[in-house]
Amino acid sequence: MTVPVPVPTARRAAELTTEPTTGCTTDPRAWRPTRRRITEGLLAALAPVAACGIALAGLTTWVGSGNAGSPARIAVTDGRVFLPYGDVRDTAAFFRITNSGGADDRLLKVTSSAVDGDLELSRHRMTSGRMAYAETVDSARVQAGGGLAMSPYGLDVTLRADPEWQTGTYVPFTLHFEHGGRIEVQAVVIRPGGQR
């Protein structure tokens, strides 16, 4: 028994022998560059490029001004210790702290090898009845680009004075900062209300 083999029709034979096309088409819906399409493409590309340029210019200005994550730069000056009156040994020390850096810092504590007992950070406040009181604080903020000026009416360091101290005596202190580390300074003993 013989199996019949299908014979291709004339149309099918023509399809099998036709050369493949070279990519050229005459389809009217094919994409062609026009002035409008080119303009829209350029505008679409220009928006993100412009946004990146503006962001880069802003970051360059910010970095150039020194505020791009610069650390705290702490300086301590103008150290003073009040000479106590009479038999009272409790007194206070004051410092001027500046932070020229771009990040806040905190004064955590103050120590001294020349002082017996603990030193405490304290803040003096007035009540509505015109009475003053002091409260111990754990730390004090030193703002970036600013500073902290200790005074008898605000923040100070309370301590017990050595009976040998006199006006003009220098007392060593170490101020401990959260980011700035330890800074060693000298504070001069003065009479309250007096100048150095």
What does this structure look like?
The protein has helices spanning 10-17, 35-64; strands spanning 74-82, 90-99, 105-111, 120-126, 132-136, 140-142, 147-149, 155-160, 170-177, 181-190. The longest helix has 30 residues, at 35-64. Strands 1, 2, 3, 4, 5, 6, 7, 8, 9 and 10 form a 10-stranded mixed sheet that branches. The radius of gyration is 40 Å and the shape is rod-shaped. It is α+β, with helices and mostly antiparallel strands.
Give a brief description.
With 196 residues, this protein is of the alpha+beta class. Helix content is 19%, strand content 35%. The chain has helices at residues 10-17, 35-64, and strands spanning 74-82, 90-99, 105-111, 120-126, 132-136, 140-142, 147-149, 155-160, 170-177, 181-190.
* Arithmetic mean pLDDT: 82
- DSSP E strands, number: 10
The gyration radius over C-alpha positions equals 40 Å
Largest sheet: 10 strands, mixed
Q: Number of helix segments?
A: 2
Strand content: 25-35%
Distance between the termini: 129 Å
Shape: rod-shaped
Order of helices and strands: HHEEEEEEEEEE
Range of helix content: 10-25%
User: Uncertain runs with pLDDT below 50, 5 residues or more?
Assistant: none
Report the structural category. Answer: alpha+beta
List keywords for this structure.
196 residues, alpha+beta
What secondary-structure arrangement, pairings included, does this model have?
Elements: H1 10-17, H2 35-64, E1 74-82, E2 90-99, E3 105-111, E4 120-126, E5 132-136, E6 140-142, E7 147-149, E8 155-160, E9 170-177, E10 181-190
Parallel strand pairs: 1-10
Antiparallel strand pairs: 1-2, 2-7, 2-8, 3-6, 3-9, 4-5, 4-8, 9-10
